[in-house]
């Protein structure tokens, strides 16, 4: 059975990521796999001082540095195991029956790619261990992960609460209809109030297409609010999210419409940095 692949690293955002995974697991009736990766850090040892110390002293220091690196690696491994145990215990206490723990050496992007055939959904924090408690910072792997992942990705901010509503930006093109179909087929967002928002962009019959999209979603059982707004795409959507207390934003990543450009590339990063609610990128 495919799993909710949940990337945890022990940062301050880990609790929010765990909560999001528990919510998704219950919604989709899928097990969770808590994934922790150990990335090799470059060490600066005695070899940095080749010209300043003698060969014998240098060899002794290199040996000592090697021992310290081995000890550091063992401690990191043990801390990772404790982190995974804590996350799995929380999931079990919240009613998730199947929570697997997996520890890998290497890069988180490579690890999720290797596990793609076992993955239904990826859950990751917006900022990682290196950012401390700065939830406005963006993890260095996020953009790469979003570009390479084959599955939907939930990017979680500093806090997570069970959502009651979500927003989808709709531009009237075929790619936007594909994004809506992903929402319908996925099941994760069923039961949530859908805000279908279009920003005027010169697309012919956009208002009519928006109404058709609304009817399509309503036939699938969604409660839908439609809005046809003016202004800059990014700012208008953020203003709408705030004014309507949107709990979650869903974004499609398909073709090269203006919204595609908005969602993939530098504008994606701006969205992730400014958005204070979970964001789902649909593949």
CATH topology of the largest domain: Rossmann fold
Q: What's the architecture of the largest domain, going by CATH? A: 3-Layer(aba) Sandwich
Using only CA atoms, what is the Rg?
A: 22 Å
Give the helix proportion (percent range): 40-55%
| Spatial arrangement of strands, main beta sheet | 3-2-1-4-5-10-9-6-7-8
CATH superfamily of the largest domain: HUPs
Distance between the termini: 20 Å
Q: In total, how many domains does the architecture comprise?
A: 2
Structural class: alpha/beta
Number of strands: 10
Question: What do these coordinates show?
Answer:
- The protein is of the alpha/beta class.
- The protein has 9 helices and 10 strands.
- The protein has helices at residues 14-28, 55-93, 108-114, 142-148, 174-186, 206-219, 233-243, 258-263, 266-274, and strands at residues 3-7, 32-38, 99-105, 119-125, 153-156, 165-169, 193-199, 224-229, 249-252, 279-282.
- Strands 3-2-1-4-5-10-9-6-7-8 form a 10-stranded mixed sheet, sandwiched between helices.
- The radius of gyration is 22 Å and the shape is elongated.
- Residues 129-138 and 259-265 have low confidence and may be disordered.
């Amino acid at each position: 059975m495919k799993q909710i692949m949940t990337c945890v690293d022990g940062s301050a955002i880990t609790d929010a990521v765990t909560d999001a995974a528990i919510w998704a697991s219950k919604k989709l009736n899928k097990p969770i796999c808590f994934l922790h990766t150990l990335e090799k850090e470059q060490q600066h040892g005695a070899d940095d001082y080749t010209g300043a110390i003698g060969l014998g002293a240098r060899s002794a220091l290199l040996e000592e540095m090697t021992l310290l690196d081995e000890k550091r690696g063992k401690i990191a491994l043990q801390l990772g195991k404790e982190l995974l145990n804590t996350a799995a215990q929380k999931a079990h206490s919240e009613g998730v029956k199947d929570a697997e723990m997996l520890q890998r050496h290497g890069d988180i992007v490579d690890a999720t790619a290797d596990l793609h055939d076992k993955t239904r959904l990826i859950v990751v924090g917006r900022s990682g261990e290196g950012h401390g408690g700065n939830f406005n910072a963006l993890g260095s792997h996020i953009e790469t992960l979003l570009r390479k992942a084959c599955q939907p990705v939930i990017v979680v901010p500093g806090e997570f609460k069970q959502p009651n509503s979500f927003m989808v930006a709709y531009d009237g093109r075929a790619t936007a209809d594909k994004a809506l179909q992903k929402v319908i087929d996925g099941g994760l967002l069923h039961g949530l109030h859908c805000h279908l928002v279009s920003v005027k962009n010169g697309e012919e019959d956009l208002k009519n297409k928006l109404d058709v999209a609304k009817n399509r979603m309503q036939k699938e059982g969604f409660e839908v609010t439609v809005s046809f707004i003016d202004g800059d795409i990014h700012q208008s959507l953020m203003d709408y999210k705030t004014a309507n207390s949107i709990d979650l934003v869903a974004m499609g990543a398909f073709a090269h419409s203006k919204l595609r450009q908005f969602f993939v590339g530098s504008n994606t990063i701006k969205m992730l940095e400014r958005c204070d609610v979970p964001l789902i990128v649909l593949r």
